Amino acid sequence: MSTRRRQIREKVLQGLYAYELSQEPVELILETIVNDLKREPEVFDLAKALFLKVIETKDEVDALIKGRVANWEFSRIAVIDKIVLRISICELLYFDDIPPKVSINEAIEIARRYSTEKSDKFVNGVLDSVLDDLKKSGRMKKSGRGLLETTTKKHTAT
Length: 158
Prior knowledge:
7 helices, mainly alpha, 2 domains, N-utilizing Substance Protein B Homolog, Chain A, disordered C terminus
């Protein structure tokens, strides 16, 4: 499932990017972009759940991002970076079975692959900071082996 999870995240990124730019109805985006995952119901269900949760919690997650990028105008953050951050923070908050380290490492890799030259460092810095804040505020609801490990800072970012 781990390689499938990368594909799920990439599909969700594509769907959220299309939604962000087109403002088409959610159902249409799901139908056109995420629908090809339907042949594997478990994969489709996870992609759909993540896609919808990111849209549902956008304001809450954006507030967390804004709190960590004080030196940046939020509107100037690359769209792909914002979406990658939203997906990862949503996983940190609402997908209890995904270890924080996995969410952050996946976000870094996807940012490296799809965004700007410095996006991986930026995304890593923001996510490490958000993760620290979530732990301190008690908002992390992860349990089980490996789910509360601290992340290894790969970069000094932002």
